[in-house]
Amino acid sequence: MWHNYRLLNRISFFLVLTSICYFLFSVFSMALNSSIFDISTIRVSGQSQHISNKELISIVRGGFRGTFLNLDLADARSRVETLAWVENADLKRVWPNMIDIFVTERKPLANWSGGGLVDESGITFDGEYDKSLAILDGPEGTNEMIASVYSRIAPLVQNFGERVIRLEFSDRRSWSVQLSGGTLIQLGREEPEARFHSFLQDLPFILEKVGSDISSVDLRYSDGYAVRKK
Q1: What pLDDT digit, counting tens, does each position of 47-85 carry?
Q2: In this structure, are residues 86 and 80 in contact, taking their beta carbons and an 8 Å threshold?
Q3: Is residue 134 within 8 Å of residue 154, measured between CB atoms?
Q4: 8 Å CB contact between 94 and 43
Q5: Contact of 108 with 134, CB cutoff 8 Å
Q6: DSSP line for the chain
Q7: What's the 3-state SS for 96-132?
Q8: pLDDT digits (tens, 9 = 90+) for 25-49
């Protein structure tokens, strides 16, 4: 064996390679736990009206496990996204010891009748009642569908100086709209948006005939409307 120079060279190379790997592993382990790479700064980007920077930083720091090199950013992001007003969050490392947090805040679309708010995607979340927003009402699990319908019909009444203050989808799957002027519009079960659009096209004629003092309109008839005055 001792005269087998090829074998001795292989053994030497293996021992040297093992030593180098051990050395690099030791250096890396020391670096991971070195105070040099402790997170010193957390920077918050993005505009947030309902989430304070202090709250975000506290949540991220509260779950720190490691240094700049081995901090679990996915876990930190998940904790930030538990905040009601956070739609999504993105965390990045900035060399050598900074964490950058970018937060996208939910945009409230309406109030949800069961409590909280509905964002533009139709997701309900825990937010304080906003009297400037409409109320959406419906059975559990229908919030996204109702928000989608509301987003399309709400702009249609603005040309008439009105706004939708309540949109309801009942347990019987029937739609109704309450306008800011007090008029209740029954849309029925089928094609609520088409019926509403058709009604608005005829509204100038209706106002000319019966006046603006309208209590309710029933659009569930196939050949016309039932209008009730106040």
Answers
A1: 788 888 888 888 888 766 666 566 778 888 898 999 999
A2: yes
A3: yes
A4: yes
A5: no
A6: -TT-HHHHHHHHHHHHHHHHHHHHHHHHHHHHT-GGGS--EEEEES--SSS-HHHHHHHHHHT--S-TTT--HHHHHHHHTTSTTEEEEEEEEETTTEEEEEEEEP-EEEEETTSSEEETTS-EE-----TTS-EEE-STT-HHHHHHHHHHHGGGGGGGT--EEEEEE-TTS-EEEEETTS-EEEEESS-HHHHHHHHHHHHHHHHHHH-S-EEEEE---SS--EEEE-
A7: CCEEEEEEEECCEEEEECCCCEEECCCCEECCCCCCC
A8: 454 555 445 455 566 678 888 778 8
Q: Quote the tokens at residue 87.
A: 């739609």
Joined tokens for residue 16:
């040297």
Give me the amino acid identity at 152.
R
Length of the chain: 230
